[in-house]
Structure formats: C-alpha cells, structure tokens
Amino acid sequence: MSLRFSDKQKQVLSWWTRGSPHREKDAIVCDGAVRSGKTLCLGLSFLLWSMTRFRGQQFALCGKTTQSVRRNLLTSVLPMLAALGFQWEEKISRNWLKVRCGGVENTYFLFGGKDEGSAALIQGITLAGVLLDEVALIPRSFVEQACARCSVTGAKFWFSCNPEGPGHWFYREWICKAQERNLLHLRFFMEDNPTLSPETRQRYERAFQGAFYRRFVLGEWTAAEGLVYDFFDESMVRPPPVGEAQRWVISCDYGTVNPTSMGLWGKYGGVWYRVREYYYDARQARRQQTDQEYAQRLRELAGGRKIEAVVADPSAASFLEVLRREGWNVRKAENDVLSGIRRTADALKTGRIVICPACQDAIREFGSYCWDLSAGDRDKVRKEFDHAMDEIRYFVATVAAPEEGEAPFFAGYVERRV
Predict the structure, then answer these.
(1) How far is the CA of 353 from the CAs of 230, 286, 343, 399, in angstroms?
(2) Whole-prediction pTM value?
(3) Which of 3, 114, 206, 356 is the most buried (most CB within 10 A)?
(4) Does residue 411 have a pLDDT over 60?
C-alpha cells in the first residue's frame, strides 16, 4: 500500500514524537473542511502513538455511534496498520479491538456517544488515551467523562470534528482555550488531503452554501443566520418539459392547525420537477380539515397519475393510516432537518430538482424561511413559513438524494444534532 501524506497530515502523525516542538502538549484538535484527510491521519497517529508509548493498556475510540467509528476510522486506518506490519483481533459483539506489533499489545474499546445517557457507558474504565471522532456531535457529558477516564501517566486526548456554530461548547471550552488546555489545534482544508482531486474538491465546494460553505469548505466556526436558502432565485423556477414524466411522487407535510403542504413531483430525464402543489392554512381559512378530506385533496393533486409513493411527515400517524387504507404506497420521510436542508440546497444548486411556477406557496416560503438566531449553540430554523420547506426536504432526503448516490460527507452528517 502506498502511503502519501500532506504536510499538515505529517504534522498530525509526528506531533507526539521526540523531535516535535509539540510533544509536551496534552491534546490535539483537528477541525476544518469536510474530506480534508483529518480523520485518517489522526486515527493512524493515535494508534501509532499508543503502540509506541504503552504496553498492555486500554484506550477508547469514540464517535457518535460505534458504527460511525468503524466506518469513519477503522475501515481506512486498519489496512494502513497492516501495511506497517501490525496485527489485530476484533470482537464486534463486544466492541473492542486488540492490536499487536513486536511483542506489544494494547486494547481499544469502541464507544458511541449518541445522547446524554451515553456517558454511563464509559464510566469505570481506566484509559491511557482517548480519540473522539466528530466530537462536536457528541454530548458534553460523554466527552468530559471520557477525558476523566484517562488517568494513566502520559495519557493524551485526541479530537476531530467539522465546525459548528461559534457558541458550541467544544469551540468555547477547548479551541478558544487551546493555550490554557495545552493543546495543539490544527485547521484542515480540502487541499490538505492529497487523495482529493481538484474536480472532487470543486464538487464538494458546490454542495454547500451560506454558513455551511464557511464551515465545511472554509473550516470556520460560524453562525447560521438570515435566509436558509439565500441563493434561491427565479433561475430555479421554470415549467416542466413538454410530455409525460417517467415517474410521479407526492410529498406531504401534514398539519391540523398548522398549514398542510403537498407537492406533486414528476421526473423528466434526470431531473425532478415540483409541478403542482396543494397548500391549506387552517388558521387563515378558519376551518380544520379531517384526515379523509386531506386524503381527497391528495387524490385531486395526483389527478389520476400513477403515483409510486407518498412521502409523508413520519409524525402524522393518523393521516398515514388513512392513506394506507386507501391503497397508497406510503413512505415515512427521512426527517433530519440540517442534513435535509443541505441535501435540498445541493439539489437546487445542481439542478436536480426544479420548482415550477404553479408552486407559488413554496416559492413564497423560500423567500421567508430563516434561521433562528435565538437558538444559542444549536442550529435551528424558525418554525414559521416552513411547511412547504419541510415537505420539499422530505422528498429530497427520502427520494431524490439517495437516487443520486450521495457524496460521502452526507452519510456522516446525518447524525448531526437537529
């Protein structure tokens, strides 16, 4: 296996070695752009450091889930260890890994910090070091408990993440206090990944807009503010092609007091067009509709077309049951808000979805859908002018994006907080 590293990656690989000016640091943080090669070099460096400095000790490899640790870290790092002469034994059912080389053996436990209750999973263990991948997605209680477990002399903390907002606790407590914490902070860019071609970098750069461009391309800890889809304009609104679509899907955001929004999507070639919509605001109309009435509106929207699926708000249990009884193929929508927003932005910017002129309520909401600036250290959208926005997001995340074979960073980012 050919091992090729950038200068930034070489710095990560050697920061703890005898000749490094950073060898006395207690921790390292690698943050910055997506696909910048930080996770690979950090994981490899962590394992080389632990196998060089310790014998018969225990370490922790942590992520949002144990599955993400295996996917993001082990699948790329273990083949490199094999090329360097290391051997390992893994017990997937027990979430541990034993690594051996030259008579040295250490044990590495895998932990997932998906919620506040996860901190209990790591209590009681004694560690000589911990690596926390995607640390900005992990609850503070878990991170602090993991660090508290590192009581062996010479233990160090290793962190990687993509940036979040500037109010995020990890940014405030670790990166802003790098000198006080005695840590090395390295910011990565896509150019620091030697395996990424210029064409691939450009594709990733096109996939983000606004605050997410600044975070995941420029590597900045910046706040989300203003319009969510601040790039949306009339160039993204046009009629569907002449002729019949190859496929039809309806997406739905269901409300009783809040508005209900439905969109009819037709696929022409490789592009999905939102050709028609139904939008009903019960407050404005001063009358709530029943599930059966909404089912009738959906039939009218379908207009006799062969609808392969109705993608709907997963929380609308009673409405979904009515649709199923009427024979519709109902799919519960993927409902991760931030991931869905990024997918929708990418689909709009690349022309994979188009909003048609008849969808005036959706066009209106695109011009009013804003970030909630009072949300503190969390990215949240304001809960207004969001019903067509939610329904479009459901469609993209559940139908359009998976069909395109999503870029690798989305798989990890689905786990981000909402």
Answers:
(1) 17, 33, 11, 11
(2) 0.67
(3) 356
(4) no
